């Protein structure tokens, strides 16, 4: 799935994970929010992009080509992508500064790491170009500790199935995965709900009772 930078920027600026989850609930997709174990490096991060998945596993000896598939996965990123990586054991800093810079050069917008990262200070300094959500931190190199098994494949990240082409949105409330086949519908309905929530907010601040506002607008 390909989206323009302007489209992704508009979603990132104007929407949020809560409203996307509400729309997904209404459409019957009730388990699209990750489990809360992953956090943004800075609380004000908002990140949206297209999932490019990476699946890693633990190893306990150093192979001859420790980085081969990992390098392929990063070099395969495209404009608008988010690298969604699973390396759950956190026994190494799977994602770091050099991978971040390589991803930026490919046009990727960020990374979601179900595992640990390193080079955090350097990555934070690149926040205007690239944002990272992660489960932990670890200065150890991935070499001899994990290998990338595959990329651009279905994965489970923090309890949610993620497929290449899904839309992923992260903010301080959490991370939501919008299946690729319903992205356009979900986003359209989310913008409609945001507009309605603005009306409800104004009514509540003007003194309308919550029950009356819900009866009038049907939004909570």
User: Poorly predicted ranges (pLDDT <50, ≥5 residues)?
Assistant: none
* Alpha-carbon distance between the two ends: 32 Å
Number of helices: 7
For the largest beta-sheet, the strand count, sense and barrel status come to: 9 strands, mixed
The chain-level mean pLDDT equals 95
Rg calculated over all Cα atoms: 19 Å
What kind of assembly state do the chains in view correspond to? single chain
Structural classification: alpha/beta
Order of helices and strands: HHEEHEEHEHEEEEEEHH
User: How does the overall form come out from the CA principal axes?
Assistant: elongated
Strand portion: 25-35%
Helix content: 25-40%
DSSP strand count: 11
Description:
This protein has helices at 5-14, 17-26, 68-75, 97-106, 120-124, 183-205, 210-217, and strands at residues 39-40, 47-58, 81-86, 93-95, 110-117, 131-137, 146-151, 155-157, 160-162, 167-171, 174-178. The protein has 220 residues and is α/β, with parallel strands linked by helices. Strands 1, 2, 3, 4, 5, 6, 7, 10 and 11 form a nine-stranded mixed β-sheet that branches. A hairpin with a 2-residue loop joins strand 10 (167-171) and strand 11 (174-178). Helix 6 packs antiparallel against helix 7. The mean pLDDT is 95.
């Amino acid at each position: 799935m390909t989206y323009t930078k302007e489209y992704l920027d508009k979603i990132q600026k104007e929407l949020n994970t809560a409203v996307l989850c509400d729309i997904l609930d209404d459409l019957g997709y009730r388990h699209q929010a990750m489990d809360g174990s992953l956090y943004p490096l800075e609380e004000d991060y908002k990140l949206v992009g297209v999932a490019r998945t990476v699946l890693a596993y633990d190893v306990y000896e150093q192979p001859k080509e420790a980085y081969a598939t990992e390098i392929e996965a990063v070099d395969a990123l495209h404009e608008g992508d988010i690298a969604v990586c699973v390396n759950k054991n956190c026994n190494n800093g799977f994602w770091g500064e050099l991978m971040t810079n390589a991803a930026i050069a490919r046009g990727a917008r960020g990374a979601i790491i179900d595992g640990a990262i390193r080079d955090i200070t350097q990555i934070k300094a690149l926040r205007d170009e690239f944002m990272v959500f992660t489960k932990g931190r670890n200065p150890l190199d991935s070499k001899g500790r994990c290998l990338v098994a595959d990329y651009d494949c279905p994965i489970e990240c923090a309890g949610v199935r993620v497929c290449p082409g899904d839309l992923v949105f992260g903010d301080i409330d959490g991370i939501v995965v919008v299946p690729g086949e319903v992205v356009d519908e979900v986003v359209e309905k989310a913008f409609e709900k945001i507009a309605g929530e603005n009306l409800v907010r104004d009514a509540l601040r003007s003194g309308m009772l919550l029950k009356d506002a819900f009866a009038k607008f049907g939004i909570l």
